[in-house]
Design goal:
7 strands; 7-stranded parallel beta sheet; binds NADP nicotinamide-adenine-dinucleotide phosphate; Rossmann fold; alpha/beta
């Protein structure tokens, strides 16, 4: 019998973080809400009942401190992110790269290393990482530093997946269009709709999960990931 998965989500207090936590709760998952500040997330289900979850505080740059916790995690959703919009200072550049790209990549490496050491446990689901990059990976998002940092994350995931993805670890990429949140108050979709689509596509077995009203993304993103895979595979070694 498969046990209920333990799901940890970064950026848990944000719009999509909360929507995904609710969706996973409906599937019976044990939840860990990873937030960059001390939080007491008061999440409720459709009936108004509190959703049980564990609040954990972490800081960008201190990913190693999550090593112990990651041992119990089956699905790690890397969802945190920020948008510095029109800024282009050195400080804004560092913040965008650290938060949107490097911390996610470090967590991916940390989780993959932990999963590689796991002894086989009957009934435990395959470990998964979901990386929320955004369609800014390949489309303009009217925010150069957001685009640069999300592209870097997407490219690092493509490169490192060549070694890290396998029977023990599944890597899924979330490529999302604009939805309403603090990060994007004018997004056309709701976070709940996006979370529902993400869970649906994951249930269908997709590793490249695309949710956007922009038809070009559905055509361009598979091409981009395929051409990167080929390019990185030919030019790099394990
Ligand atoms: N909204 C859109 O249109 C859109 C489109 C495509 C992709 N995305 C991506 O979707 C993800 C979720 O975004 P959202 O729209 O739900 O935005 P959101 O409501 O602003 O949530 C983002 C969360 O990221 C965490 N975060 C922010 N700054 C951080 C920092 N310095 N260090 C660590 N964590 C930090 C915060 O959660 P905690 O305080 O809980 O850590 C924040 O609530 C992001 O990666 C975003 O890039 C958004």
């Amino acid at each position: 019998m498969t046990s209920s998965p333990c799901v940890a989500i970064t950026g848990a207090s944000g719009s999509l973080g909360q929507a995904l936590l609710r969706r996973w709760h409906r599937r019976g998952a044990r939840l860990i809400a990873l937030s960059c500040g001390p939080r007491n997330l008061d999440l409720r289900d459709a009936g108004g009942q509190p959703i049980p979850l564990r609040d954990v505080t972490w800081c960008v740059g201190q990913e190693e401190e999550l090593s112990e916790l990651l041992r119990e995690v089956d699905v790690l959703v890397l969802n945190h992110g920020l948008n510095v919009h029109g800024q282009r200072s050195g400080e804004a550049s560092v913040r965008s790269l650290e938060v949107n790209a490097l911390s996610g990549w470090r967590l991916l490496e940390l989780f993959a290393a932990e999963v590689a050491q796991r002894a086989e446990q009957p009934g435990r689901p395959q470990a998964e990482v979901w990386v929320n990059t955004s369609e800014a990976e390949i489309q303009p998002a009217l925010s150069p530093l957001y685009e640069i940092s999300k592209r870097l994350l997407g490219q690092l995931v493509s490169l490192r997946a060549l070694d890290l993805a396998g029977p023990q670890l599944r890597i899924r990429r979330l490529v999302l269009g604009p939805f309403r949140s603090a990060l994007n108050p004018v997004g056309v979709m709701s976070a709940d709709f996006v979370a529902g689509q993400v869970m649906g596509q994951a249930g269908l077995g997709f590793n490249l999960i695309i949710v956007t009203p922009n038809p070009f993304t559905y055509a361009l993103m598979p091409l981009a990931t395929l051409s990167r895979w080929l390019y990185y595979k030919v030019l790099t070694r394990t």
